[in-house]
Specification:
Layout (H helix, E strand, L loop, with lengths): L2 H15 L2 E2 L1 E3 L9 E6 L5 E6 L4 E6 L4 E7 L4 E7 L3 E6 L4 E8 L2 E9 L4 E6 L5 E6 L4 E8 L2 E9 L4 E6 L5 E6 L4 E6 L4 E7 L3 E8 L5 E9 L7 H5 L4 E9 H5 L10 E4 L1 E2 L2 E2 L3 E6 L4 E6 L4 E6 L6 E4 L4 E6 L5 E6 L4 E6 L4 E7 L8 H9 L12 H4 L9 E2 L11 E2 L21 H12 L7 H13 L6 H4 L5 H13 L17 E2 L10 E2 L22 H6 L11 H12 L2
Antiparallel strand pairs: 1-10, 2-6, 3-4, 4-5, 5-6, 7-8, 8-9, 9-10, 11-12, 12-13, 13-14, 15-16, 16-17, 17-18, 19-20, 20-21, 21-22, 23-24, 25-26, 26-27, 27-28, 29-30, 30-31, 31-32, 33-34, 35-36
Subcellular location: Cell envelope
Pfam family, one: Cytochrom_C
Main location: other
Length: about 575
């Protein structure tokens, strides 16, 4: 037996003894991996990618720039967290599981897996390594897991006042930061009691990255900002007034003190400049105490910024970069490209992309998958400032208002509508001006985003993707608050008040326009009612987002109620709405 074969056999035997060997995948078999996350192993030898499309994990030899093995882990792996002793945690957003893995060189075994609430997206390891906190978007939950050797166990769940995404422990491990998936909220969670201490809010949406600086005194955020006072004409888009994309450095001590100025001693890199936007930032990696690199998912680029120096040094990478890591030597950055199954390599001294290599053979894309690429492509907009995803985060909504020609005029900003479960709810838009999703795709790209003529093929692909976006389960199911008696009583209240005139089941909308006693700033009084399905997942309501809770709709604005409701009746009506 040769020395190499003996070493390989020993490695395999050791790995099998440490867990169940996973199914190995041939990277030469055509597939659409869609890498969503990437980490660097502690020894710096391998890059590991979490593949959303195939549920696999690719192990890449960093210096050889090639995939050395690929392992079937689940259905849709979206995040990886490095743990001690060559272990790692993978999140499966389709099977709703946390999977504890062990790696020996290019071999991968499964140690344990535990069920999670719906839609897990991110995880954070406490500084002492004893616990892991996972964010689950649609149930609005944080889940704490205990890590005991090679065993995972669910410890506690925390219902949040918003849908969390990015999670990060501060260096002392006493506070966990949890950022809003859709808006600009940031929760300070007490790690010991696992309870919310305080909610901070800053002008942001699409918070896609949150990392500590090299000296651990600052937090870096990558996010977008939508300005409801700007209009989507060529002037305001060109100057970055409608949609800005930002890499922000914020003093950690100020963030942790609710009484302090959030932005005090902070600094912001604009990701984009007139004529050259940087739509949809997706990830950040810290290079050193002064520099960081940020990926721009919408423009297929990465940019290097220095603290307190204006602008970014930008370079082209692959389609829809989703994750970036920096080499231990601080000379190279590696970018995972989500829509072309590749990794780009950037020389950090020259800020230039020096190579790109494939994770494996990619199959031909379906029409829906081509539509997904277009939905996230900011280059469809004028100068690359925004994509469809910029406003419709994860196909949903950032809850903000935009003056975007949706009603064929400027001057009356409208709340951005969710696209989830919209396929059978035509017409589209607050004034019902688009009869089909294909027509809406043309209108959004050509009039709102000023991106030029959209081809019929691309419009159809976008429409196919939007039509495929499913509603998540109702919020009361996900939070285990479903009360059948209250829902039944609330349904009767809904019927007695003739809410079905505008919100007729089973779609809970109708195709007509109605005067509901409100008008916009252009004096429009008739609006198409949005479907109530999934309403429990929204945070703002009415055409101008004037209501910020379901209770406000009735208590503050008295929306279309024929009689005044008691507190119990209102509670039951809201229970019914949350069940839709």
């Amino acid at each position: 037996m040769t020395r190499t074969l003996f070493a390989t056999l020993c490695c395999l035997l050791a790995n099998v003894a440490h867990g169940a060997l996973l199914e190995q995948v041939d990277p030469n078999q055509p597939a659409y991996r869609q890498p969503e996350d990437m980490i660097l192993t502690p020894d710096g030898q391998y890059l590991l990618t979490a593949n959303r499309g195939t549920g696999s994990l690719s192990i890449v030899d960093r210096k050889r720039q090639e995939t050395v093995s690929e392992w079937k882990v689940g259905r849709s792996i979206v995040h990886l967290t490095q743990l001690p002793d060559d272990r790692l945690l993978g999140l499966d957003s389709a099977q709703n599981e946390a999977i504890l893995l062990h790696r020996v060189d290019s071999q991968l075994t499964e140690l344990d897996r535990v069920p999670l609430p719906y839609s897990p997206v991110r995880s954070a390891l406490s500084p002492d390594g004893s616990q892991i906190v996972i964010s689950c978007v649609w149930p609005r939950k944080l889940v704490r897991l205990k890590l005991d050797g090679d065993q995972l166990s669910a410890d506690q769940e925390l219902v949040m006042p918003f849908a969390p995404r990015e999670v990060l422990f501060e260096p002392a491990g006493q506070i966990l930061l949890a950022a809003d998936n859709f808006g600009g909220k940031l929760a300070l969670v007490d790690a010991a009691s696992f309870s919310v201490r305080h909610i901070r809010e800053f002008p942001a949406h699409n918070i896609r990255a949150m990392v500590l600086s090299a000296d651990r005194t600052k937090i870096l955020f990558a996010h977008q900002m939508l300005n409801s006072l700007a209009v989507t004409n060529t002037n305001d888009i060109h100057w970055g007034l409608v949609m800005s994309n930002d890499l922000r450095w914020v003093d950690l001590a100020r963030v942790l003190n609710p009484e302090d100025d959030f932005y005090g001693e902070g600094f912001m890199h604009p990701i984009g400049e007139p004529g050259k936007g940087g739509g949809d930032p997706t990830d950040i990696a810290v290079i050193d105490s002064e520099q960081a690199i940020v990926t721009m998912g919408g423009t297929a680029q990465a940019g290097i910024g220095k603290h307190e120096s204006y602008g970014l040094f930008r370079t082209n990478v692959g389609e829809h970069p989703t994750a970036v890591v920096v080499s231990p030597e601080k000379d190279l950055a590696y970018v995972a490209n989500g829509f072309d199954d590749s990794v780009s390599v950037i020389d950090l001294k020259t800020a230039k992309t020096v190579s790109k290599f494939s994770l494996g053979v990619r199959r031909e894309l379906t029409e829906r998958e081509r539509g997904e690429k277009l939905f996230h492509n900011a280059r469809l907009s004028m100068e690359g400032w925004m994509s469809c995803h910029s406003c419709h985060t994860d196909g949903h909504t950032n809850g903000l208002a935009s003056d975007n020609l949706g009603d064929n005029s400027f001057g009356a900003p409208k709340r951005i509508l969710s696209l989830l479960g919209k396929a059978d709810t035509a017409p589209f838009g607050w004034l019902g001006v688009s009869p089909t999703l294909k027509a809406q795709a043309h209108k959004s790209v050509e009039q709102t985003m000023h991106g030029g003529k959209l081809s019929e093929e691309d419009a159809q692909a976008l429409a196919t993707y939007m039509a495929s976006l499913p509603l998540p389960p109702p919020i009361d199911q996900l939070q285990q608050t479903h009360d059948e008696a209250a829902i039944s009583h609330g349904r009767q209240i809904f019927l007695r008040n003739n809410c079905v005139k505008c919100h007729a089941p089973p779609k809970y909308t109708t195709p007509d326009l109605y005067d509901v006693g409100m008008e916009d700033k252009e004096l429009n009084r008739e609006f198409n009612p949005p479907s109530l399905r999934g309403i429990g997942h929204r945070d703002t309501f009415f055409h101008d987002a004037r209501a910020t809770s379901l209770r406000d709709i009735f208590e503050v604005h008295g929306h279309e109620l024929k009689v005044e409701l008691s507190d119990q009746q209102l509670d039951d009506l809201i229970s019914f709405l949350k069940s839709l």
